[in-house]
Design a protein that fits this description.
The complex is a heterotrimer of chains A (491), B (508) and C (98). By secondary structure, chain A is an alpha+beta fold. Helices cover 39% and strands 19% of the residues of chain A. Chain A has helices at 3-9, 60-72, 179-197, 237-256, 301-308, 315-326, 330-338, 342-350, 355-373, 384-395, 401-412, 418-425, 433-446, 448-455, 462-472, 479-490, and strands at 10-21, 58-59, 76-77, 84-87, 97-100, 107-116, 119-132, 136-140, 152-156, 163-169, 209-219, 229-234, 264-269, 273-276, 289-290. In chain A, helix 4 links the parallel strand 12 and strand 13. In chain C, strands 2-3 form a two-stranded antiparallel ribbon. In chain C, helix 1 (5-14) crosses helix 2. The chains are: A alpha+beta (491), B alpha/beta (508), C alpha+beta (98). Bound molecules: magnesium ion and zinc ion (ZN).
């Protein structure tokens, strides 16, 4: 069924669960490094391996991050709360229970306001709670490498015990056809917020930000929620949107044909479809109870207020402020946001560059390099300070654009700051008028026809002479100055 | 049996310090006694003679080099097989952990080793500390040195039996519902459950996290205090550990003075269901304390009647979660991994084969008590009873310095007598459980042999949280008065009796 | 209440313990007796009584966010029933994609 058709009959209701991996130095309950990509099982200890006798101790920094996230989401912070054990067996979980929070989350009752295509949506946050991540499974043997027909699996527990914050919305109604866009905007909002808070790397492709998207449909005009599905494995903002488009259409087709939606977990495939997970006969009974090995967390109001004072500006507010201050049109500013260049440009401006110059470098030359290298803009080995310094050299006439690009090459190649690259590569514009004048004279002598035309007032012909001078100077001249000299000589 | 074996740790400490005795000699004597009697007593699951002798020699060398050593340096100790220690298996008496060698030490193991104490080996216990008789060990049953046909108590029956059979002067235990005190009572040894959180649980394999309390076992109150001093104290690795100074329990044991102390008998811990001989010895001990100048009164703690029920909900609930990790994935037994069975099958088969009947019983009860629809009636109600019991203690301690009761309702029962009747077995911990639920501290000291059957009777003293020193003060006073009255220790009577002939290498 | 063998088997599955038929027959009546006995707790568990989850009323026990040494992978894997490629090898997992 087409999406528009589905939307004519049904109202979608969303529920979003986002897991954020905190970027603390150590894990949630032990002192192992909170870091991936190392030798398998090298960042593990008796605690995160759940060895008999081991006991957890809470990472204070993770509590601090949890409270800051809660405050940034407009939540109330619990005056007293506990961890709970969520009991179920799975080989990636070393204790066969997850230490999580149950009926006493650290943060609850939040509100986030989003703007999507000029319309404001209020997203109610039910809770933000603390928990731990599980280890990583690799499925081996079998023909497809997928879990279903693997012969066995291999487990690396380096990720086991990574601190997670799970942010859960209340059911989101009234989005209509914008449901997929609202979901995407919400996750994008959370990503920006977490980044601004500095609490997570929020890299969806690496799993440090994960979204489970719940959706159900109800016939237009009704108020009772339909049966929902929970789609997992959505690893990018675009996938969230696509997965919801797909799920809404799938459910609508089922319902329209008189069928029923199964309440189940579904798995998103990047190729553009979802498949059902194992259907559960009955709801899992997690047998939650207060974690006896950890004592309650009771943040004092003084501590909470101290943390509130450390909150960054809300990203949406900050964007409005910056756009006004920088004077960009909506589309110009949207390009910056979409390119993830807001912070970089802000820092570049702070380092002395004009907003327009900062935007130009990051969105053109540097964006192209990042794209070529297949990395994020922020990962390029050049700092906003270096970009500002580069622009300063251009403004001073030391560099022209072409030379500036060569300086970028040097900075990216690790040759140091722009000034060092200029010196090292001998790239500065020749600003010695004597040398330039001599070169202009030689160009005029070598091209008498052109010189004559200019003399007759055909100023446009100057380009050929400028080109000749620039060539002689191997580009290290200020073209505008060369033009001035030619016209003065012939005019 | 050499006199060395019957000598207290406190006295041995002096002999070692004065170099009249070497740790090697002493350790050798313990190892020989184990060799002599353990085939009958079966207190140890694992003995590492070479390691024990090597550490004894290291202590001797340090002493000869003039190093200042702690009071227990060079004294042998029997460790319940629930404390992790590198280089030795930790099985918790379970087949599911057979052969598991942990890669880390418990905090208490570290403290014991740092004090220069010589670990002889690991002692037998009910599987994962679940039981009151050691009959639930996955390996074998330990026998009571007083009567080899009887149980040595549990779950720390191995540690208590090792003391009573003179295999070691010191031992370690854990007390979740009485697993230190009840074995002490039925073997005429001393066992202390410190305040919850006063001794670290890090590296002590969990049975029920909110109740488990490691503690010292010894033949005298002073020896227990010396070991308590070594193992207690704040541990940043245990979030439930108390960050406060350890009361001076050694000074309290030496002070041994009860004049003017208010001692209250708990009315609910006595009467029907208690063996007459147990009550008789208990009352005689009360009279001794009164003679020493203590003020004896009675208090009522009405909610103690619900303690056993609350315990048998809270404990199995925590057990069901704590023992989930024995899933055949990372360590221990794995059954049915034939390439066809799924991970779920392998977990099911391994746990079905690796756990004994009592462990399964408790896991199932706990799973039930926590499951949705039953939580409030079972686990939730039990937690409320826990509050009521704590309130009863608070009220009682408002008018008394310590509370007392028999440690157990009966003396040691016969091996096999209660295995098919779990409820009867559970009643062995009737008097000890309230202190686990409330978290306060308690001790069991021997107060004679029951006239009914000639078996040891234990006297329990309970004190408020972090007032552990009171246990030692009262316990030592009672011990001293009774020893004077008997003309020696109760355990000396065992050695002198025909039943104890085997302890000297005689026939049994 | 009367716990049946079938219910005990379901609890066994939830607790990942495969129980034999004879175990189920023995356990069901035993558990029934025990649960009936311990159900007494509800007699005094009034609504106004707060529950106690921890013996001592400690709060806010936190650790500094400072890296401590981990175990070596060799030590970590030493006790494993099966190992492959520096990881714990576990039997095939039936179930949803993870
Ligand atoms: Mg969760
Ligand atoms: Zn760790």
């Amino acid at each position: 069924m087409e999406f528009e058709e589905a939307m004519a009959t049904f109202d979608p209701v969303l529920g979003l669960e986002v897991h954020v991996e905190l970027n603390t130095a150590t894990k949630m309950f032990c002192g192992c490094a909170n870091q991936f990509g190392d030798v398998p099982n090298s960042n593990t200890c008796p605690v995160c391996l759940g060895l008999p006798g081991s006991l957890p101790v809470v990472n204070g920094k993770a509590i601090e991050s949890a409270i800051r996230i809660g405050l940034a989401l407009g939540c109330d912070i619990a005056g007293w709360c506990r961890f709970a054990r969520k009991n179920y067996f799975y080989p990636d979980m070393t204790k066969d229970f997850q230490t999580s929070q149950y009926d006493e989350p650290i943060a609850f009752n939040g509100l986030v306001e989003l703007e999507v295509d000029g319309e404001i949506f209020a997203i109610e946050i039910e809770r933000a709670h603390m928990e731990e991540d599980a280890g990583k499974l690799v499925h081996a043997g079998g023909s497809t490498g997928r879990i279903g027909d693997a012969e066995y699996s291999l487990v690396d527990y380096n990720r086991a015990g990574t601190p997670l914050i799970e942010i859960v919305t209340r059911p989101i109604r009234g989005t209509g056809a914008k449901a997929p866009a609202v979901a995407k905007a919400y996750v994008s909002y959370l990503r920006d917020l977490m980044r601004a808070l500095g609490v997570s790397d929020v890299r969806m492709e690496q799993g440090s930000l994960r979204c489970d998207a719940n959706v159900s449909l109800m016939p237009k005009g009704e108020t009772e929620l339909g049966l929902r599905t929970e789609t997992k494995n959505v690893n990018s903002l675009r996938s969230i949107e696509n997965a919801l488009y797909y799920e809404i259409r799938r459910q609508a087709a089922l319902l329209a044909a008189g069928g029923k939606v199964h309440q189940e977990t579904r798995h998103w495939h990047e190729e553009g479809y979802t498949t059902a997970g194992r259907s559960k006969e009955e709801a899992e009974d997690y047998r939650y109870f207060p974690e006896p090995d950890l004592v309650p967390v009771a943040p004092s109001s003084e501590w909470v207020e101290q943390l509130r004072a450390t909150l960054p500006e809300v990203p949406a507010v900050k964007r409005k402020r910056l756009q006004a201050a920088w004077g960009f049109a909506d589309q110009e500013f949207a390009d910056i946001v979409n390119a993830d260049a807001l912070e970089l440009i802000q820092e570049t401006v702070a380092a002395g560059a004009l907003p327009s110059s900062a935007r130009k470098w990051w969105l053109t030359e540097l964006a192209r390099r990042a794209n070529e290298a297949g990395v994020e803009l922020a990962q390029l080995p050049i700092t906003p300070g270096q970009v500002a310094a580069l622009q300063e050299l251009v403004d001073a006439g030391t560099l022209n654009d072409k030379l500036a690009r060569q300086v970028i090459d040097g900075v990216l190649a690790g040759e140091g700051d722009p000034a060092a690259v200029v010196a090292g590569r001998g790239l500065a514009v020749v600003s010695d008028d004597g040398a330039l004048a001599a070169a202009v004279d030689r160009a005029i002598q070598a091209n008498p026809d052109v010189a004559a035309k200019i003399g007759e007032g055909k100023v446009a012909a100057a380009g050929a002479l400028i080109g000749a001078v620039m060539k002689e100077m191997r580009g290290q001249a200020d073209a505008a100055r060369v033009r001035e000299l030619i016209l003065a000589r012939l005019g | 049996m050499s006199d060395l074996l019957r000598t207290d740790a406190a006295e041995l400490s002096g002999l070692l310090a004065e170099k009249q005795l070497s740790a090697r000699e002493l350790t050798q004597a313990s190892l020989e006694q184990i060799e002599r009697v353990d085939s009958a007593v079966k207190a140890f699951l694992h003995v590492d003679a070479a390691r024990a002798l090597a550490s004894a020699e290291a202590i001797d060398a340090r002493r000869m080099a003039g190093e200042e050593l702690g009071p227990l340096a060079g004294i042998p100790l029997a460790m319940k097989d629930i404390f992790t220690m590198t280089g030795a298996p930790t099985t918790c008496g379970s087949r599911i952990l057979e052969g598991w060698v942990p890669p880390y030490n418990s905090t208490i193991t570290d403290k014991v080793l740092a004090a220069g104490i010589v670990v002889l080996g690991k002692t037998n216990m009910d599987e994962f500390a679940m039981g009151s008789s050691t009959e639930n060990s996955g390996y074998f049953t330990t026998h009571n040195p007083w009567d080899l046909d009887r149980i040595p108590g549990g779950s720390g029956g191995g540690s208590a039996a090792a003391l009573a059979a003179f295999e070691a002067p010191l031992a370690l235990g854990t007390d979740t519902g009485g697993s230190i005190r009840q074995p002490a009572a039925v073997t005429a040894t001393v066992g202390v459950k410190p305040t919850y959180g006063a001794t670290s649980r890090y590296g002590v394999v969990a049975m029920a996290s909110s109740l488990d309390t490691p503690g010292p076992c010894a033949r005298t109150v002073l020896d227990a205090a010396l070991l308590h001093q070594v193992i207690a104290g704040w541990d940043p690795r245990d979030s439930t550990s108390i960050n406060a100074a350890v009361p001076d329990v050694v000074a309290a044991a030496k002070h041994a003075e009860v004049k003017g102390l208010k001692i209250a008998v708990v009315r609910e811990l006595g009467g029907d269901g208690y063996a007459p001989g147990v009550l008789q010895r208990f009352n005689e001990a009360l009279a001794v304390l009164a003679e020493l100048g203590a003020e004896i009164t009675e208090v009522s703690c009405p909610n103690f009647d619900y303690a056993l029920s609350a315990y048998y909900l809270i404990m199995p609930s925590e057990v069901s979660s704590n023992l989930a990790r024995f899933d055949a994935m990372r360590y221990g037994l794995r059954v049915g991994d034939d390439g066809v069975n799924s991970v779920e099958d392998v977990m099911n088969l391994t746990r079905g084969a690796g756990f004994g009947a009592e462990v399964k019983r408790r896991i199932i009860i706990g799973t039930y008590a926590l499951s949705s629809g039953y939580y409030d009636a079972y686990y939730g109600s039990a937690q409320k009873v826990r509050t009521l019991i704590t309130q009863d203690f608070d009220a009682a301690f408002a008018s008394a310095d310590v509370l007392v009761s028999p440690t157990t309702p009966t003396t040691a029962f016969k091996i096999g007598e209660r295995v098919d009747d779990p409820l009867a077995m559970y009643k062995a911990d009737l008097c000890t459980i309230p202190s686990n639920l409330a978290g306060n501290c308690a001790i069991s000291v021997p107060v004679g042999l029951s006239p009914d059957d000639g078996l040891p009777v234990g006297f329990q003293i309970m004190a408020p949280a972090m007032a552990d020193d009171r246990l030692y003060r009262v316990g030592a006073a009672l011990e001293q008065a009774l020893t004077d009255r008997w003309g020696g220790r109760l355990l000396d009577q065992l050695v002198a009796s025909p039943a104890g002939a085997y302890l000297n290498g005689g026939a049994r | 209440m009367a716990l049946t063998a079938k219910e005990v088997a379901r609890l066994g599955e939830l607790a990942r313990i495969r129980l034999t038929d004879s175990e189920l027959e023995q356990l069901a009546p035993q558990l029934d007796v025990i649960l009936t006995a311990v159900a007494r707790v509800s007699e005094v568990a009034a609504t106004d009584v707060p529950p106690t989850s921890h013996a001592m009323a400690l709060i806010n026990v936190f650790r500094e966010d400072v890296v401590q040494p981990s175990l070596t992978p060799e030590a970590v894997l030493a006790g494993a029933p099966s190992v492959g490629d520096g990881r714990f090898r576990v039997p095939r997992i039936l179930g949803e994609e993870a």
